[in-house]
Every structure is written in structure tokens, then in C-alpha cells.
């Protein structure tokens, strides 16, 4: 009885926690979490904040970080994106907008299908947002594994591109399950000043920037730049961001080491935005210590899928010889170029598509289905060929030992008979690959093989040759113009600096000029006017004047005697003709003509030739 009374007294004295006690416990947990957060900051020297001294701000993102479990790191908050809609987590979301001279580019995350009928929705400048106008999207394309691009017309008069949205044509949802959402806090970025792309390269990030106006074809001082990693829009005050100093800079490419916290767990870099910090007085050639972030639409990705794909490729043998090119509306030339050079030994193809609208993706898909190992990278950034080639190096490095960088109107030609002292034998199948192997094995310091180009003219024709350029064009200028290169990827300079025609090499490596008696490149540069006049629309190289610009008229990059208007000069069909050269034509007819007809060439029919 007494023991029963004692137990009742103990139960009566065991009162539940009061509200104030529970609040104190939660406060203690939050304080401890915040202390751990500060320790993390101090452990990474590359972490900075947007103000001169560290003043923590309890914004929504910071509270979210503090209330997360102990297993969540800063990078979880850096790369985390809230679901776009509860019913459709892959609903498209307009993340960024870039204003080009002739269109607005939207970078979209989530599910946007190619060839989808979308409308671009503009908001009136002088309204509360209720006055809208819709225009059909120009095109929809895949940009990467994680993002798509939609090209929209320039906004109508009195309408803005700043809050440009998407919807399915006719007013329906953009993905069939939810309205496309947009990042309305991000301003539309002008193309002449923006960080537009970024790629992981080992323990560093390679960042592509428009608007630095660095000296072409030279290294620049990297000390004036820094890389900033974070989330959100750079026109807003960031709660925190990671920063590292640049280690190389050239033209439009800046390289920085990754922050230590990202290096230790690159998968957490998924979707982290990257920008470049400039001295506040950069454009007046000052050396201010204050770094001002540039506008950026670039993100880096380190997904598990990519890591597994890279690991798989490392386990397989690399291709000895690959090719990379940048094209605009050259689908009609692609089959001949790839089929011919595949026969010469090129095993892998990287096609950078600079805003084509001639169904080039269908040609590439067909070639790839026929075991021509071809991939297409949508590259929407205009006049960035040098940067695009640097980007291609990063993509090809895990798959290829050597890569040739040349255009789809350029074709290797081996003289017959070849020099027997070089060990190449009679020109034939895999001759190009054999040449690269022969020269590279002769000296371990050879890292670039340069071949001169001969420029061919219209050769008396007035319409495109139906059997291809190699058979159709047979008259050229006597003296060679420029050269193109095949480079060894592991010997390229850290900057990835190139001039389109060749790359800068690491110290200790050198290039080799192929004797013209062994090989040359037939450059079908001045084709019939119907084909040539398309060059007046735009050129892809950064530091080459467009045909319509009244400058550098005497440059080899222009047509001698041709003005700035797309008007056919008199006797165009007879120009640029000094030497009749039928060597490659005869070689092609001897080696590629179909045995049953003696005339049909592989690129003239839909099925692929035996290889």
C-alpha cells in the first residue's frame, strides 16, 4: 500500500515539458547547427561573402540550411531546387534569358520536348502584367542533359523580354501537366556581357565569358579574375557564395580551381551557378581589389550519371582519331564530309551546331544509326568558334587521343603516289589515321600536325554539284592559304587557347608541318553563288569580321574583291581559278564509285557504304 502511494507521488511530480523548455531545446539545436555552419565556413578558405566582413543574415535560405539535418551540407543548399509543381516535378521552368541581336534565347529546365509547339509570352512595358502578347517560338532544342533552349522572336514594340514566359500554342500548359514557370527575379542578359557556359575539368571549372574583350590569340593575366559559385541570380545580394582565384585566362575562357567543398563531393555541384568576378574598375584597366560578379546563365553539373559515364569511357580504349567542327546550316554537306573522312580513319565526330534551321539533326541521327559515331552539341552562342573548340576539347578528352579541327568544306587529300620514305604506302583506307600515328610515333614531343589548305573556286559551275564538292569543284588558287590542325589533347595548354586553325601547346611540345607532297586539304571555299552567299548571314569565328562589315577587306578571311553586300559579282563562276586540279576527284571516283553503276557515290544514296 505504501509503495503504491509512493509510485503515485512520483507520477504526480513527473510533469511534462513546458512550452518554454521545448523552445529552449530547439533554440539550443539551432545555435549548435549555426556553430557547425560557421566552422564549415572557416574550413574552406575559398568561401567568401558578398560584403567586406562576414555578417550572417537569417534569410530564408540560411534558415533552411540551419533547420536541415546534420547530413545536409552547404552544397545541398547551394544546388537544391524546389519542385516546380507538386503534380509535375519535371515541369519546364524558364531559368534564364539572353537577348541576342535577332532573337531571345530561353534556358529552360524540366521537360520541354523538341519540335514542340510553344508560344513565347511577352508582357507589356506599361501595365501591371495583365497585358500580354504571344508569338510562336522560333525553335526548341536540347542544350544538355539538364536543360533545353527555346528561341523566341524579339519582343514586339512596347513589350518586354524581361519576364518572357512559355506556354503551349493556343494557351495550354507548356508540358501537358503544368504551366511553365519562370525565374522572374533574373533580368534578361545582354549577349555582349554575360557568362554563358561552364564545364568541369577534373578539379577545375572552365568558364566561358562574353564581354571581357581580352586580347585575341594571347594569354591574359588570370590574377584579375575570380570564379564565384552559388545559387540564384547574380543581380541579387547573395547570402553566401564560394570563390576561387583564376589560374588561367585567354580570350573568352577562364579556368579556376573548384572550391574544396565541391572537389570533395562533385556530385553536389549539380546545377550550381558559376560567374566571373572582375575588378570594379576592370574596363578602365584598374586593379581594384573589389570583385564585381558578371551576369551569368552558366551552371555546372556533376551528376552521378555523368560520373558513371566518364568512368565507363575510361575503362574502354580511346579512339585514336576524332574530328570536331562547328556548323551553321550545312546539313547538305555533312554526309559527304563524314563518310569520306571516316574511310580515311576518323572514328568519332563532334558536331557543334550553331543555330542551324535546316534539319541537320535528322542527318546526324541517320549517320549515327549507320554506325558513324556522330554526336551533335547544340551551341547557341553566336561568334564563339574559338570558345566552342575549347569546349569540344573538354568533351572529347575522355574519348579521343587526337582530334582534327576543320570545317565541313575542307577535305584531306593524299598525293599519289605518297612518299615511300614516310611509310604511308599507297593512299587508301585509314590513310589519315596512319599519317597521324606515323608522325606522332616519330617523336614524343609532336603534339600538333598542320596541313596546308588549297582554296577552290566555283570551277565554272552555276549550281551546286549533285555528286558532291570533291567531284564537282576542280579549279583552285595556285598558292595555299592557311592550314588546319590535328592536335593531341593531353598536350594542350591549360588555357585551351586556339586560333581556330591551331592550338597553343604545353611547354616542351611542338607542331609539325606536313609536307605538301604528302598531304594537303582541299578547301572548297568559293562555291557557286547560291551556296556562297549564305556566308553573308553570319560567320562563326569570334575575331573574324562578318562579310557585311566594312573592315579588313584585304584579309585572307574574306573573298578578294568582294564587297559587303550579298550581290553576285560579274563572272563569279570563273573566279578563283588559277590551277585545274582533278587529283581528289579522280581519287574519289576510283575508290568510292559503286561497282554496279560506276557512278553512284556513297553520299548520293540513303544507305551507308560498307566500311
TrEMBL record:
Coiled-coil ranges (or none): none
Family affiliation: Belongs to the glycosyltransferase 92 family.
Major localization listed first in the record, in broad terms: membrane
Superkingdom classification of source: Eukaryota
UniProt name for this protein: Glycosyltransferase family 92 protein
Enzyme nomenclature, EC number: 2.4.1.-
UniProt keyword annotations, A-Z: Glycosyltransferase, Membrane, Transferase, Transmembrane, Transmembrane helix
Keyword Lyase: no
GO molecular-function terms, A-Z: glycosyltransferase activity
Origin species: Corymbia citriodora subsp. variegata
InterPro entries: Glyco_transf_92 (IPR008166)
Compartmental location: Membrane
